[in-house]
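Problem 12. The chain below contains 143 residues. Write out its predicted structure in token notation.
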Amino acid sequence: MKILIFLSLLAVLASCYVSNDEISDRNELKSVLMKQQEAWSNNDIDGFMEGYWQSDSLKFYSGGNLGKGWQNTLDNYEVRYPSKAHTGKLEFTIADISQIHKDAYWVMGEYHLYREIGDAKGTFLIIFKRINGKWKIVADSSC
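Solution.
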């Protein structure tokens, strides 16, 4: 019985443990998002896009539509947000960062746009993957 209690306690403690690598990864992911937040708030869509994987395999899902490709995503942002009045000030609220694999995480949260033309807000689920030593968003679902 004591062994069973000990093993149960050990399992609970192990599930609460986050490795130093995971802490470092999460901080790097947050850094990418903060750079994106700053770039967006400065009406720098090109800078915002640096957080995304520059590949035709990038996926972006929003409004019931699945878009593919980095250039397509950039083009859509430029059409939908043509000026500072449209981009406004961006703030992310991160609800969860969970490791999927050694080199992949999902991030769930909310975005808030404070704009002259009217505020906007929504939720997101993004998938980060470490590619060539850098964290890049490979999939984004925002609504």
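Discussion. The mean pLDDT is 91. Students who got a different answer should revisit the alignment rule from Section 12.3.
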